[in-house]
Write a structure and sequence with these properties.
Mean pLDDT: 96
Structural class: alpha/beta
Oligomer: single chain
Radius of gyration: 20 Å
Distance between the termini: 41 Å
Largest sheet: 9 strands, parallel
Helix content: 40-55%
Low-confidence stretches: none
Number of strands: 11
Number of helices: 14
Strand content: 5-15%
Shape: globular
Length: 327
C-alpha cells in the first residue's frame, strides 16, 4: 500500500492518533514492534498558529519513527491552511486531517467529527489543505454523525476528489462515540466502490492478530489502523505482523512485556517529570491486557494506579511479577 510515494508494504497496520497516548516514546516503541507507520496526538490548528508551546511540542519528530504522520484538526479553513503549512516545516511524511474525533470539546465546536454535519466545509478545508502543502494529505473520519446519517459511502469519493492520498474510516458514528461494536461493512463497501482509487484504511475494535487478518480478508481494506488495542500493549503490532506474514505468531513472554511497560514508565518520566510522567503512563498501566483476568487483582491494581514515585511503581511491578507471574 502506498500513500503518495510512501510505501507501507502489503497489509500494513498503523498506530492511530490518540490524544495523550501517542507521544514520541510510545510511537517509537510501536514502530519497533512492527507498526507500519505512526501518528501524533492530534494537533489543534488554532493552538498551532498561536504558537502554544504544549501544541508545538507535538511536532517533534524522531527519524526512527518514520514513516509518521502529524494530524491536525480545526473548523476554520484559513486556520487549517496556516496550520498545515506550519506542520509541513516539521517535515512529517504525511499530513492527516482529523474529521473523526467524537469528544464534545472538539466535535461540539464543529471540528473533528463535527465536520460530518457540515460536508461543504469539510470538503472545502480538505481541498484547501491539499493545495497548500506538498505533503501527501490523508483524512480520518467516521461513518457519519449518527445512525440515521451514515454518509461515508457518498462522502468517500468526494474526499478523494479533493486530492487526498488515503482515507481512514472508523467504523462508528459520532453519536456512538466508542460504544457498541465497530461496523466494518460500510468500510468494505467503500473499498469495493469502483470510483475509489486511493487506499482505504479500516479502524475500530482491532485487538488481536486474528481480528486484523480477518478484517483484511473479509473487507478487502488496504490497511488497518489500531488505536485503543495498542494502549498498554504496543506488542500487538508484532503479533499482527507475524500472523499476517506467516499465519501464526509467537507472543512476547510476560517478562518481555513487563520490560516494555518499565521502559514506557522511564521514558515518560524522562520526557516530562516524575509526577506528570507517571500520571501520563497510568492510562497504559490501566489498559494493559497483561493484567487482565488475574484473580484477586483489584487491590494490587489500585495500588499500582495510585503510586506517584518511580521507585514505588517499579517495586509494585516487581511484586506483581513475583505474586502473579512467578517471574
Amino acid at each position: 500500500m502506498k500513500i503518495g510515494d510512501i510505501d507501507l508494504g502489503a497489509r500494513p497496520v498503523s498506530l492511530a492518533p490518540m490524544e495523550d497516548v501517542t507521544d514520541p516514546s510510545f510511537r517509537l516503541i510501536c514502530r519497533e514492534m512492527g507498526a507500519a507507520s505512526v501518528y501524533t496526538e492530534f494537533v489543534s490548528a488554532e493552538a498551532l498558529i498561536r504558537d502554544i508551546s504544549s501544541t508545538t511540542r507535538k511536532l517533534t519528530i524522531n527519524d526512527a519513527e518514520r514513516p509518521m504522520a502529524i494530524q491536525i484538526y480545526g473548523r476554520d479553513p484559513e486556520a487549517m491552511v496556516q496550520a498545515a503549512r506550519i506542520v509541513e516545516q516539521a517535515q512529517p511524511d504525511i499530513l492527516d486531517i482529523n474529521f473523526g474525533c467524537p469528544v464534545k470539546k472538539v466535535a461540539g465546536k464543529g471540528a473533528g467529527a463535527g465536520m460530518l454535519r457540515d460536508i461543504p466545509k469539510m470538503l472545502s478545508i480538505t481541498e484547501q489543505v491539499v493545495k497548500a502543502v506538498s505533503l501527501p494529505v490523508t483524512v480520518k473520519t467516521r461513518l457519519g454523525w449518527d445512525c440515521e446519517n451514515k454518509i461515508i459511502t457518498d462522502l468517500a469519493p468526494r474526499l478523494q476528489d479533493c486530492g487526498i492520498k488515503a482515507l481512514t474510516i472508523h467504523g462508528r458514528t459520532r453519536s456512538q462515540m466508542y460504544t457498541g461494536d465497530a461496523d466494518w461493512t460500510l468500510i468494505g463497501e467503500v473499498k469495493r466502490d469502483p470510483r475509489i482509487e486511493i487506499p482505504i484504511i479500516g479502524n475500530g475494535d482491532i485487538t488481536t492478530a486474528q481480528q486484523a487478518a480477518d478484517a483484511f480478508d473479509r473487507f478487502g481494506v488496504d490497511g488497518i489502523m489500531v488505536g485503543r488495542g495498542a494502549i498498554g500493549a504496543p506488542w500487538i503490532f508484532k503479533e499482527i505482523k507475524e500472523y499476517i506474514d506467516t499465519g501464526s505468531c509467537t507472543p512476547l513472554s510476560d517478562a518481555e512485556k513487563f520490560d516494555i511497560l518499565r521502559r514506557q514508565i522511564r521514558e515518560s518520566i524522562d520526557r516530562i517529570d516524575e509526577y506528570r510522567g507517571i500520571l501520563h503512563i497510568r492510562r497504559h498501566l490501566a489498559a494493559t491486557p497483561l493484567f487482565k483476568g488475574i484473580p484477586n487483582f483489584r487491590e494490587m491494581r489500585i495500588k499500582l494506579l495510585r503510586a506517584d514515585k518511580e521507585s514505588e511503581l517499579f517495586e509494585i511491578l516487581d511484586e506483581i511479577k513475583t505474586r502473579f507471574f512467578a517471574l
